[in-house]
Amino acid sequence: MKKVAVTGIGAVSPLGNYFEASWEAAKKGVSGIAPVTRFDASGIKWKVAGELKGFDASQYLSQKEISHLDPFVQYAVAASIMAVEDAKLVQKSEVRSQKSELTDLLTCSLDSGAVIIGSSRGGITTIENGLNRSSRSSRSRPSPYLMPSTSIGMAASYVAQKLGIRGYSLGISNACASGANAIGEAYRLIKSGYAGPVLAGGAEAPVCRLCIEGYGVSGALSKINDSSASRPFDRTRDGFVLSEGACVLVLEDYETALKRGAQIYGEIIGYGNTTDAYHMTKPNPEGEARAISMAIKEAGLYPKDVDYISAHGTSTPLGDKAEAEAIKIAFGKKAYEIPVSSVKSMSGHMLSASGAFEAAITLMSMKEGVITPAINLKEKDTECNLNYVTEFKKAGIKNAISNSFGFGGVNAVLVFRRV
Q: Cα(239)–Cα(336) distance, rounded to whole angstroms?
């Protein structure tokens, strides 16, 4: 079995339009949550979201492509290009010098590579826009690009097209766990012998009326309409804040990465994937705990070896309580000692992209020896009595886990090791 290294990270998030900016904002405890601008939210209860701010898709795509592609695909392309640049698989000037076919400019290592990108909602923004146009005029016809550009798999397919990747390609839709699942499946692919490199992550553009009202009426969204709305594990939490963005990691065979002199953010050493088989929306702590334990076991670790937990931490009353219980089941007495944080307190919930983004934040936490804070946690819920980090702190982290859970009782847990 091969060892798996992460050699590149690219992201667009409510905290920044490239990963380095997002990481610096996370260390400072900056909130990316603000009033909704994508549509007129005056008539609904939920008025804040985690939107990208000043994102310029024309850095990565032509105007024609932008007009044809749903934003979630645009975000995936941007994050993927930044990830391969970061991994030094391509030159920045080469990738951005053209806006269509880039294949002839790229290194041959990408030709036989792979791409796995998850998304929960796919092209829902474009679908909503198409329906709105049709309702306004009986003469309005859907765009011929409506169906292909909004499919879940188009993020992976279009990234492959832009980067000349002709190997393995897969779109994953496993609710909010999709991005973490994509990384986990990429890890398994390389571990079992696939040459790679593999681009893996998640992309979402769900900040539209349909999504916000849909999640809102289900009781999942916070009714607090300011930047403090996302407050994981706090006694006053009342739901998550919907956000958009994308994050993509480059995974490689560890020895290959060493030979080409690549920077290595960390090693992926375990992956747990379970389902609760319990309820459509209510989480089951037992199922989540099984995923945590499975990942730790595959990593060859014991609970005592884990130094940090990046929590799913959505800020929902049921979800946070279930996750805290799952951590207690999986770690026993050790659960009360391990530092726990939730990046969603700052970014909001980017659905599938959150799992990938939190994996990236975890890798940087290990690399720099720091933990980003869970902001807005002012009064700890007595039923969620774990060791939460509420201020930026230094910490030596050798092994860490990142949790991602989703509707349908789907659970994905990744284990990382510092190198």
A: 24
